[in-house]
Amino acid sequence: MIAETGLAALWLAAGLAALQFLLMILALRSGAEVARAMRSIALVQGVLTLVAFVMLLVVFARSDMSVALVFENSSVVKPFIYKVAGAWGNHEGSMLMWVTILAVAGAFLAVLAHRTGERTLLAALGAQALLALGFYAFLLFASNPFARLWPPPPDGQGLNPLLQDPGLAFHPPTLYLGYVGLSVAFSLAVGALLTGEVDSRLGRAMRPWVLGAWLLLTLGITAGSYWAYYELGWGGYWFWDPVENASLMPWLAATALLHSINVLAARGALKAWTMMLAVIAFSMSMVGTFLVRSGILTSVHAFAIDPERGTFLLALLAIYVGAAFVLFAVRGANLKEGAPFELVSRESGLVINNLFLTVILGVVFVGTLYPLFAEAVSGEKMSVGTPYFNAVAGPLALLLAALVGVGPLLAWRRERRPVLKKLTVPALLGATALAITIILAPQIHILPRLGFAVAAYLAAASILPLIGRNPLRAPLATWGMVVAHFGIAVALTGMAANSAFTTERLAIANPGDVLSVGPWQVQLESVTPAAGKNWTAIQAQLRATRGSGIVTLAPQMRYFSDPPMETNESAIASFWNGQLYTVVGRQDVSGAWQLRLWWKPFVTLIWAGGGLIALGGALALFGRIWMLFRRRSRAAEWRTERYA
Predict the structure, then answer these.
(1) What is the pLDDT of residues 178-234, one digit of tens each?
(2) How many CB atoms lie within 10 A of CB 524?
(3) Is the dihedral of CA 509, 512, 516, 522 positive or negative?
(4) Phi, psi of 506 (to 5 degrees)
(5) Under 8 Å CB-to-CB from 567, ≥6 apart: which residues?
(6) Which of 79, 392, 527, 584 is the most exposed place for a label (fewest CB within 10 A)?
(7) Contacts of 193 (CB under 8 A, 6+ apart)
């Protein structure tokens, strides 16, 4: 009855979503008073989808093989953490997680939204319900997660071994929270376009949702990058894989939207631009959902799904995104911009920032989707890989990072101060870093060389908003901006160091052989069998030395029987100045073993920078919430004193 309970909850939630959408139409057409009813329906809908998702977790935890999804993605001997996390490590389960987050976000919008006009809120709740209704239909008619098997088999087929990692418990949920968090901004934008209430109040209402979604996307992408780095055994932190790009594109759009919303909230300007970015940001989430689940991509990250379900998702994408852009085309031209601003102003800086982000988004979008269109037209397969993205997006990203240091120093509306003088020290640090790389490392490529220079400049420029004021009295939002921009500099340093100084050694070795990679001497001591709960392995014992001290590493080549697959489990030793990354491969005909070794100087700065960027977002979000709480407390005190 557990599966049937979950399925019934989904049907009821779908019915409530349809009712919620109809009430929105009634309210906008006739002005009916349905606000309280719509809020209640949204809340109950969120609870029902949460019940459905909990039921799915229960059948996975209990290894209920009578449920087809459990049989296809789990096994009795699988460790418990992967039994539970496996609930969303597949197509149907991940889509149920998606729609659950969508419905719960709508419930929170209904309960917490008090900063927009009532008509805009009702329209937004209706838009959110319509989004959910499409995904309910997809689950109920094309991807039922609770479908039964009869008779139930004794054991299942197991989970993809690449997903049997703690990263599965963190990475997908965080990304989905970010993806679907953008749906609220999308719904608020659609609601505001329908009612014409696009103003500073709307910007302040949208900002926490966008900031929260951006924060979660940052965490998810950073965690996913490190997960792929150590799990796949390829030695890289970003491969420009189409599915990786599918998560990057919403982040780029959300970053542009976040900066644009700040202008809308503070000055009432960039109304049309902000509404368009809200539509684009969620559109990129929908595009990513389609790419991963349509079956048109061959990737270790993608779900292998039949094209019929991909067609269903493509139809949803066309309906939602197409309708939103049509609405924007009809209503966006009528939006009146707020306070004017001059060329040299913070508003202009944010506009330029957005333009660069949008161009980079376009580069990634074209590079990701063009091969698919080309194959559909000509039938010939082609790929757009790392050289294209690095050559085109790399210089744009460096220019953007350089401009990031300027924008926060500018005043709203018009800048009269000599701002460039403040950048003298950061510019000198950047020039010094460039000169040092030319003298000490003349062989490295121009992009990492410029990366070091821009990183040094930005690290210094990012703290300038705190100079000349008491840092303890600076708003948390300012601290968040400073920390996030400093995090960009840290991550950029790690990327430049990884690109410029990584050394690799691929060799065939016998026990006792010593290989050199970077400053390390690595000896293969032995290769022995090993076993886990649901896998067997060949494990290499490596002894690495660099001057004094010894480091031992044990990379493995694992074999899983359910489903049958071999995986490389890397062994990594981390130090303050880099990582020693090791992988063992197959034995050749002579009895020697394949070894692949990397020395990656300062590569950990990439993820440290990502963590700092996310921390900056968290500080800014907490600061905004705290300011709202204080304002409401003061308003309550004022009302109490007035009527006392």
Answers:
(1) 988 899 999 999 999 999 888 888 998 899 999 999 999 999 999 999 988 988 888
(2) 22
(3) positive
(4) -115, 120
(5) 161, 162, 231, 233, 557, 558, 560
(6) 79
(7) 275, 327, 328, 331, 332
In a 13 Å sphere around the CA of 213, the CA atoms on its Cβ side amount to 32
Q: Which two tokens stand for residue 4?
A: 């049937």
> For residue 477, what are the contacts with CB-CB under 8 A and spacing of at least 6?
619, 620, 623, 624, 627
Query: 166: which 2 tokens?
Result: 């703690």
Please list, in sequence order, all residues whose beta carbon lies within 8 angstroms of the beta carbon of residue 308, skipping any fewer than 6 positions away.
142
Closest alpha carbon to 292 in 352, 194, 368: 368
Alpha carbon distance 461, 564 (integer Å): 52
β-bridge pairing 571-575 and 578-587: antiparallel
Amino acid identity for residue 268 in this structure: G
Residue 541 backbone phi and psi in degrees, to 5: -105, 115
What six digits make up the tokens of 514?
């010593």
Query: pLDDT above 70 covers what percent of the chain?
Result: 94
Torsion from C-alpha of 192, 198, 201, 205, nearest 10 degrees: 40
Three-state DSSP class for residue 331: helix
Q: Strands 564-569 and 556-561: what pairing? A: antiparallel
Q: Cα separation of 560 and 612, whole Å?
A: 37
Report whether the peptide linkage leading into residue 151 is cis, meaning its omega lies within 30 degrees of zero: yes
Q: How many angstroms separate the Cα of 527 from the Cα of each of 534, 542, 551, 598? A: 20, 9, 17, 19
- Residues 480-526 have pLDDT tens digits of 999 999 999 999 999 999 999 999 999 999 999 999 999 999 999 99
Angle between helices 242-267 and 346-378 (to 10 degrees): 150
Global pTM value: 0.93
Residue that the structure tokens 């944010």 belong to: 350
CA separation for the pair 105, 184 (Å, rounded): 7
Say how many Å lie between the first and final Cα of the chain, rounded: 57
Using DSSP's 3-state secondary structure scheme, residue 239 falls into coil
φ and ψ of 587, to 5 deg: -90, 135
The span from the CA of 65 to the CA of 70, in Å, is 6
Q: Which two tokens stand for residue 640?
A: 């109490």
| CA pseudo-torsion sign 279, 280, 285, 288 | positive
Single-letter residue type at 226: Y
Give the DSSP H or E segment for 514. Answer: strand 514-517
